[in-house]
Amino acid sequence: MSLREFTIDNEYQYNLRSPLRWLNSHILRYPWLLIVFVLTTAGMGGAQSMSAVLVGRAFDTVNNGLGVTALTFAALLVVISYVSFGLFDIVNSLVIRVLAQRVERDARDELYLSLLSKSQTYHGRQRIGDLMARATNDVQQVNQFVFPALGLTTESVFMLVIPLFTIATLDLKLLLVPLIFLAALVVTLRRHNEHLRPVAGLLRERFGAMNAGLAEAVAGIEVVKGFAQEPAEEGRFHESARTYRDAFVQEGDINARYLPLLLYGLAIGLAFGHALLLFRQGDITVGQVITYMALIGTLRSPIRFLLRTSSVIQQSLAGARRILETILTETELDQNTAGLSQAMQGDVLFDHVSFGYDEVASSEVARHQGAENGRGPGATGTASLVLNDISFHVAPGQTVAIVGQTGAGKSTLTKLLNRTFDTARGRVLIDGVDVRAWSMDSLRGQIATIEQDIFLFSRTIAENIAFGARTAVTQAQIEAAAREAQAHEFIVSFPEGYKTVIGERGVMLSGGQRQRLAIARAFLSDPKILVLDDSTSAIDSNTEDQIQQAMRRILEGRTTFLITHRLSQIRNADLILLMKNGHLIAQGTHEELMENTAAYRQIFMPEAVRSISSAGMQSAVVDQP
């Protein structure tokens, strides 16, 4: 994958050319574990075959009338062979389990790193539940590919091959039935796997769909309950669970028609008859007949193992295919590690900028198809534009208020600053440099955004505040940021104070408390450019006034973009951008726009009227100084 937003140093490079090669590259990362596993598996097969040989020789010893000493020695050798098998088995089981866990850990790390490196456009198109299914269940299938699948398959191969070599040492004529059986086994196994493969892929897809539906229902549980849609949601989940179950039943039906077990039963009878025929002809002894049948008996276990592992291997390959599909999906943004990395001054220029979500998706599709006609993103001109030909300039340290109706493109405009999205046409420049020429790490490390929909992690309050810091911070620094954001008082009111663990997305906090924590987090990140996307909407006027005073002190020399409907914030801005339907229809100071722009006056004149008719509520409604 050539375009990524995030990488780590010394990242291990895996083979991404196919699911099987990808799995093998994970396994081969630990060659010594693999070598020990193969050697101990061979030792197990050798010990098992040797025990059968020794038992047969013991019978010949009895038939030949040898003494107690010879019998004791024969019995001792049998004990040694079984003990050896047990010791090899202990080491073998330990090694293969360690290898499986390491492969699972590495695969999950690789997938998580891949998700971190994807653009917001990519994540906006994904179902979170399906991604979670890939990161959990599909990765667990990778573990099972190593153990039990790889372990039992390798063991089965050795348990099939080593007995054949041992039988050959007894008498080459005894190989007739086992070789016919082995050829039939290869053919039937191949057909069995061909039937299993599509069902395994269906299982993984249906599990992902079921998990995605479950995640959406749980995430939207408030809406489900608010509209009394529990029965409908239960019905949807029941249908998803039913289709997942049906895929399992289909797999069970294929496994029930597993022919190798029937072939093995036929092989046992034919082998025994053939051995008795050779014994009557005097070609082999009684002990060799017993050894031969014992070796034929060892073939039962690998045949049963192959039944178990066939399903696991096919499901593991299907899971690996889904993981690899995620890893290989290329996005439109690049980390640009060789780009500009320096302290920002905060000068911002939008130069004839246009943007459309469909154009970003179209550029990705074109890149995947290998389009070579030289057109840049958005060159098709077929996608609808969210922003159209936007141009303005902001000097360092200025405050910009962006106003307009819902859907005018205000939030989208600010997301072009830190390259959450890239422009379709035109340029966004910071300090005279195109944002695409900046190092992604340096660019985003100096731009902080506080949105209306605050996201807080299910961690302590202190950890949530410190999340935005680029370096380690002290408790004193965390508390100082909280005080500046007017959050310290309510934090210390909790029994655990700053160590209080808040629920997922901060559900145990009020909207105003969540916003103040987000503001404290932004303060601590010490940004050069700060974007406030209606970030004080859930804060009362008195608290907001205190926060604004803190902001005026802290944001000196910083460029600030405000998306707000509060008149007091707008009129104090150095520059006001008035947007409508993705167009910048006017820009200037509050006084300039009130004088020259009718659309601006239409937005704020009703506020003034209401403030006059509500004298006692003037500060709360209009919020004028």
List the helices and strands and how they pair.
Elements: H1 19-27, H2 31-63, H3 68-117, H4 120-124, H5 128-170, H6 176-219, H7 221-226, H8 230-256, H9 260-280, H10 286-298, H11 300-328, E1 348-355, H12 357-368, E2 387-394, E3 399-404, H13 410-415, E4 425-430, E5 433-434, H14 440-445, E6 447-450, H15 461-466, H16 475-484, H17 488-492, H18 511-525, E7 529-533, H19 541-554, E8 559-563, H20 567-571, E9 575-580, E10 583-588, H21 590-596, H22 598-613, H23 618-621
Parallel strand pairs: 3-8, 3-9, 6-7, 7-8
Antiparallel strand pairs: 1-2, 1-4, 4-5, 9-10
Helix pairs in contact: 1-11, 2-3, 2-5, 2-10, 3-5, 3-11, 5-6, 5-10, 5-11, 6-8, 6-9, 6-11, 9-10, 16-18
Mean pLDDT: 83
Assign an overall shape.
elongated
Please give the count of helices: 23
- The termini sit apart by 54 Å
Radius of gyration over alpha carbons? Answer: 35 Å
Count of individual beta strands: 10
**Proportion in helices:** 55-70%
| Order of strands across the main sheet | 6-7-8-3-9-10
**Percent of sequence in beta strands:** 5-15%
**In terms of structural class, how would the helical and strand content be classed?**
alpha/beta
Low-confidence stretches: 364-382, 608-625
The major β-sheet equals: 6 strands, mixed
How is this structure best described in words?
The chain is an alpha/beta fold and 625 residues long. The chain has 23 helices and ten strands. A hairpin with a 2-residue loop joins strand 4 and strand 5.
Keywords:
alpha/beta, six-stranded mixed sheet, 10 strands, 23 helices, disordered C terminus, 625 residues
